[in-house]
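Hello Y.,

Per our agreement to keep a running log of every chain we model this quarter, I'm adding this entry. I've kept the format consistent with earlier entries: sequence first, then predicted structure.
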Amino acid sequence: MLFRNLTLFRLDHGFADALNAELLHTRLADHPARSCGSLELEAAGFAPPLGREGMELVHSSNGCLLVALQTDQKLLPPAVIGQELEERVAMMEQSEDRSIGRRERNRLKEQIIDELLPRAFSKRRACFGLFDPRNRRLAVDSATPREVERLTGQLRHALGTLPIVPATTAESPAGILTGWLASPEKLPSDFSFDGDCELENEGIVRCRHQDLTGAEIRAHLDAGKRVRKLGLVWEDRISFLLDEHFVFRRIKFHEFIDEELERMDLDDAAALFDAEFTIMAGELQRLLGRLTELFGGEA
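Predicted structure for the entry above:
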């Protein structure tokens, strides 16, 4: 179970100090995952992070608490609704010899959705949240604002409160990243470029698998463009795309995790999950601490 994205929040001191696995489990148990009702487009609730083999709604390891929001969503493509709507409108206009207005079209659309929902297939997915009370962090495994808001909103509803603010640093990530790209010799020795970047200034330039120290990138920077996203590799262990808002995308843990798990020789799925989560959480703690330091500390 490895995170692929990170949206970070800072926890309130008092909330972080009081947070524990037992409290979380008790509150989340009142909001369990469930399937959509026949006339529901979406249903969300908390499920064991371990999946079907798990029982606990909170997975705890080395001071970190992992939760999983499970969302059940009906698959009702807009194209299908639109096609059915146009066919019905055409039939009504022909049989009744009149035009169908916007309000009536909207009522027809709602009626079609109500008719199709009970027969629609459902898609189930999970979004993970990692509480790190010791470092006052909440990390969400998503870079999509809507999905992040869904998880934090459900947590707030279940807990009664969720005093968090977006994680920010004293110095602008965009400024630091642009400085590294403009002067590669300033890039800290434990980091390297990963070949991907996104630059912006009166237009956006996206580069993939490119030499970021080349003349073309230099020309864009000289023209006043600044970094929006920059691909980095840390200690040859983790690669990621970091954006101007300190949001991480396309996180990839290199082979060291597989090598460590092989040495542990774990056959039990729960033990393997716990070991992988523990390693991942420890690596993320180190990476986030290092980047926060390089960006001038917390704002």
